[in-house]
Amino acid sequence: MLFNSLSFLIFFPVCLALYMVLPAKARTFILLAASIYFYMCWNPVYVLLLASSILVTYICALILPKCAGKTGSRRIVLACGLIINFGILFVFKYFNFFAETIAKVTGSTGLHLDLLLPVGISFYTFQAVGYLIDVYRGDEPEKNIFRYALFVSFFPQLVAGPIERSGNLLKQIRELDKRPLMNLDDFRKGAFIMLYGYFMKMVIADRAAMLVDTVYDVENYSQYKGFAVLLAAVLFSVQIYCDFAGYTYIAIGAARIMGFKLRENFNTPYLARGIRDFWDRWHISLTGWFRDYLYFPLGGSRKGRTRKYINILIIFLVSGLWHGASWHFVFWGFLHGILRVIEEIVSPIWNKFRSAASDVFFGGKEDDKTYGALSCILTFFIVTVCWMFFRAESIRQAFDLIVNMFSGFGLWQLTDGSLLMLGLDAKEMNVLIIGLIIMILVDRAKHKGVDVPAFFAERSEIVQAFILLIGILFIVIFGIYGMEYDAAAFIYFQF
User: Fold this and answer.
1) Predicted pLDDT of residue 360
2) What average pLDDT does the structure give for the chain?
3) Which of 204, 234, 280, 321 is a plausible cystine mate for 242, CB 3.0–4.6 Å?
4) The predicted structure's pLDDT at residue 3
5) Are residues 476 and 365 in the same domain?
6) C-alpha to C-alpha distance for 63 and 58, rounded to whole angstroms
7) pLDDT-based confidence at 115, cuts 50/70/90?
8) Catalytic residue set
């Protein structure tokens, strides 16, 4: 069930109505039933995999406190939970990839499993495993299985995050029958956040996808040069941000309407001043998961610089593999890992040079605005080139497109109308530009510390109604949807 589908626009109000009308003690069961139904709309059978992940981590978490003082037993229980959960993930997502890779290396005939990838399996597996590790580290396990099942399967963030922690979402679920039913402030903020998420997805991301898909088409990509490839590369950066952040905002908004506060997952990532800063702002819940459950256990930065650099590379290689069972995803992660290591090595030297230059040319005052702007532009360009390996069907295609981008520039492309023959005509391009301006203004305000949903909620009711009405009309008129356009699934659903 897509957020941008008619079925969800019926499902959510019905769920919300039941949530408000039925007794407080029934709220957990209402939301759990709604979450199970929501997931079964994709594939009813695969709800068994979700249930398996829930049951295994629930049981293992209950056993851990009973093994207090028995380090070996605790490790065995933890290992069982991890092996079963990651084993299911491996079979459904990675088995064919590794089998095909081994077959190519050895020249043998590889075994292929004809399995459909369960939607959101990487997200709910990481959420359940994170909970189990937290209990292993000393957190109190949840004894009520219905509460825990809702924590793992909560429908707004079930299939594409944000990846929640028990200290946030599970804590709110435990207090579900005690807090007031409806908070008007939460409702207003949630509605605005949802609306903005739909705007990012349907007006910007799906429109940008039309041009991106044209240039990246496997059969025809070699014919595109220069500005055509550059425009497609930039618009994919826009597309994946607006697609994934759009989903996240819809999820956060829907949860907020029901009184839940999910974790922030994006914080103006394209205003980052470096690769590390970018990853502190992009997919924050996944970055935090890898930091807390993999980077720190590997030793983090505590065992010397060389080990730190190796750990960084491991994190990004695993992150690439998490995003997809293909070598171009692994290579994308490797690129970011290398860039992070280079940044770690170069930053101290660069900071000394910048300080010395400011003493010589600016009287000791650093020109932070100019430096910040140049840093943002350079970071965006580097991230955009890396995204080309993410979007391409293979490493070879990405390199071919990069070569075409740098070897076929011609100023005539800006005036001969060829850029308007890539899937978006002049009208569609103008709508996209307007959408991008709105997005940039919102991101800029957020970057400056403005709480945009709160700003909206503080306006008069007439102003709020006007903004919501204009927003809905804009999405209805300029959104990309309908039978002729079927590529509207969120990108991160495949992970």
Assistant:
1) 55
2) 89
3) 204
4) 83
5) yes
6) 9
7) confident
8) 323
Q: What is the DSSP string of 7-28?
A: HHHHHHHHHHHHHHHS-GGGHH
Is there a single domain that holds both residue 204 and residue 73?
A: no
Instruction: Say whether both 231 and 141 belong to one domain.
Output: no
Task: Please name which of 401, 379, 405 lies closest in space to residue 390, comparing C-alpha atoms.
Answer: 401
Residue 151: domain span: 6-181
Most distant CA atoms of the chain, gap in Å:
74
pTM for the predicted model, two decimal places = 0.91
Of the residues 132, 147, 181, which one is the last residue of a structural domain?
Answer: 181
pLDDT at 487: 42
Q: How far is CA 179 from CA 160, 168, 463, in A?
A: 27, 15, 29
In the 8-state DSSP scheme, what is residue 264?
Answer: P
The DSSP symbol for 413 reads G
Same domain, 103 and 226: no
Query: Among candidates 89, 127, 95, 101, which has minimal Cα distance to 114?
Result: 95
Q: Are residues 200 and 87 in the same domain?
A: no
**Alpha-helical runs (H) found in 65-120:** 71-89, 95-106
The span from the CA of 279 to the CA of 286, in Å, is 10
Name residue, tokens 């626009």.
Answer: 9
Domain count of the chain? 2
Burial 407-418 (b: 16+ CB within 10 A, else e): eeeeeebeeeeb
Distance in angstroms (rounded) separating the CA atoms of residues 67 and 185: 45
Q: Is residue 256 part of a domain?
A: yes
- Last residue of one domain, picked from the residues 138, 166, 181: 181
Residues 93 and 41 in one domain: yes
Q: What is the pLDDT at residue 483?
A: 40
Task: Specify whether the CB–CB gap between 251 and 163 falls below 8 A.
Answer: no
pLDDT per position as a tens digit, 174-221: 988 887 777 888 888 999 999 999 999 999 999 999 999 999 998 998
